[in-house]
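INFO  loader      accepted 1 record
INFO  loader      residues=217
INFO  predictor   begin
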Amino acid sequence: MSARLSEMHGTIASTPATQRDGDALNYVVFDLETTGLRPATDHVIEIGWCVVRDGTPGPLRSLLAQIPVPLPGAVQALTGISDELLAREALALAVVLGQFFADCGDLPLVGHNVVRFDAFFLESACRRAGLVAPSRGRYRDTAALYKAQRLALKPRPGQDHWTFACETLDRPAPGLRYALDRCCMALGISLDNVTRHRAAGDVQITLQLYQRLCAAG
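INFO  predictor   done
INFO  writer      dumping tokens
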């Protein structure tokens, strides 16, 4: 996606009408692409997101972020993002985060494996940009929700989602796989015409996954 807000309309179904709690109707699905796996030393190169209000998704949006180091070749091969693309279209990290947070407001932030990956990268990015990171209580993790449904797990009374998600993902479950692709295929979500390992494409299918998980209760 270009550094301009890239938008695709009409590609995502509305949240099912049977979902009536706030988290199922109003939230932001987001995804990050990064230079590696270490939040302390690696960098966010792309943020994609979609704001859902009253069950209706807005446009998919993504922004590329400037980084102070060359992009590793393995990341270029995985994502299709190149140093040339970043030089041409990326914006300063603070600008990217500012636009993302402006759209998000105080809505819940939904992501896949977010309590193990994206949240920590977002916190690191905010520190570098001099911004306040979202509280961990705002996150909703579709990997944890999928695993919890497969194992028939429920949060304890009063337990926050972050703690429940961490406990769920740490729970041994031999043979159960919950990578994004596997979750989508298990629930009949098509990966056709989706650009994987780009933030907007991953947001598109994570949104559908969250909708299915919320509908299933």
